Amino acid sequence: MIRPVCIVTGFLGAGKTTLALGLIKSGELTDAVLIVNDFGDASFDSVQIGATGTAYRAMDGGCVCCTVKDDLLKTLHEIPGLFPDKTSVWIETSGISNPSDLIPLFEGSSFLSGSYSLRSVVAVVDGRNSFDWLVAQESAAEQVSMASVSIINQHDKARDLDNFKRQLQSLNPLSDLHVLSLEDEPPLTIDTFLGPANYYARSQSLISIGHGHRHESHGYITQTIRWEGTVDESEFVDLFSEWLEQIGPGLLRLKGTVRTHFNDQFMIIQGVRRHVTFDYNHSGWPSENVLVVIGRDIEREVIDSLLGHILSLKNKEMEAEICQK
User: Fold this and answer.
1) The dihedral formed by the CA atoms of 161, 167, 172 and 175, expressed in degrees to the nearest 10
2) Tens of pLDDT along 10-30?
3) Largest alpha-carbon pair distance within the chain?
4) pTM of the predicted protein model
5) In this structure, are strands 149-153 and 116-126 parallel, antiparallel, or unpaired?
6) 81 to each of 89, 117, 118, 138, 148, how far by Cα in Å?
7) Which of 240, 218, 232, 251 minimizes the C-alpha distance to 315?
8) Structural domains for the chain
9) Better pLDDT: 250 or 180
10) pLDDT at 123
11) pLDDT in tens, 90-148
12) What is the dihedral angle through the alpha carbons of 296, 128, 237, 18, rounded to the nearest 10 degrees?
């Protein structure tokens, strides 16, 4: 059996996992094995996928295009034996991965070329960002330029969407472009991503793949903090909002779960640059106090100061309890 493969890329917070969850819910990925790559050492995306009961493999702590590429190769070798009834593979890369480093894998190995057929590279684009900002991010620009299918997600209907589409098509005129809100609109069908054999090779034949020297971190840093206990929700949100005002423009992505007083579920933190939300839709996220920060030029001292302030909230609560006694 030759299993068709879809590689899903998209810069930090664009909506890759939201796309996968929508397709899982609609039944479009029933026959697929999902390989989920999280750049940080806390598994947020893979935990959400795993909570659905879908066949999956998690790859955390680096990018499948470089630091954990060997893990990807090992997993691809194991899939036929581990999941003989699954007929396709969905690879969700980290938000900073470069797809051009993955594509040659499927032609450079006799086993992979005889077991898998790369059908598409999908780029999910955050429609809230400007095109100029997008192309300034090395990974984001390459993800779009290599895509056979592009999805503009979370778009602002008030902006000039037609111009944004034209700009993306100037970067990659061969990509099949879709516009939809992955949170709210019905998902696309799997046929959109798994086209006929050699579809990807044919559709991208005019696009050259550049290979430059890249550091294993791609210039981005992921930092993680964990703590015990609970905090007051409003005090935490106020503290976190103040911290966001102080941090520099290097902040790109935030993910976190926080235990608050008198609530059975963890509060979920989702952030893309300064766009941050707090809610209690747990959806299988990690059950621990953990925050992952991804960006450039963010010193560890800045992250440690946030942890210190969080711990001070806990200490205030303990002091209040002691006074009451």
Assistant:
1) 10
2) 998 899 999 999 999 999 999
3) 74
4) 0.74
5) parallel
6) 14, 17, 20, 37, 29
7) 232
8) 3-203 (3.40.50.300), 221-324 (3.30.1220.10)
9) 180
10) 95
11) 999 988 888 888 888 887 778 888 999 999 999 999 998 889 988 888 788 889 988 88
12) -90
**pLDDT for 197:** 56
Count CA within 13 A, CB hemisphere, residue 267.
20
Residue identified by tokens 């999941």 is: 83
Region at 279 (left for phi over 0; alpha for psi -120 to 50; beta for the rest): beta
Tokens at 47, concatenated: 């935990």
User: Are 15 and 153 spatial neighbours (Cβ–Cβ below 8 Å)?
Assistant: yes
Residues 12, 123 contacting (CB under 8 angstroms) = no
- Copy the structure tokens of residue 218: 């791609």
Q: Name residues whose C-beta falls within 8 Å of residue 264's C-beta, 6 or more positions apart in sequence.
A: none
What's the mean pLDDT in 214-225? 63
Check if the beta carbon of residue 177 is closer than 8 Å to that of residue 165.
yes
How is residue 258 written in tokens?
């926080």
Closest CA to 309 of 285, 291, 287: 291
- Residue of 176, 169, 178 lying closest to 199 (CA atoms): 176
CA distance 239 to 175: 43
The CA–CA distances, whole Å, from 201 to 104, 120, 179, 207, 302 equal 11, 9, 24, 10, 45
Phi, psi of 78 (to 5 degrees): -85, -25
DSSP state of 186: P
CB 271 within 8 A of CB 253: yes
| Residue 294: pLDDT over 50 | yes
Per the CB < 8 A criterion, the answer to whether 275 and 318 are in contact is no
For CA atoms 63, 78, 45, 150, give the dihedral sign. positive
Model confidence at 201, in pLDDT bands (50, 70, 90)?
A: low
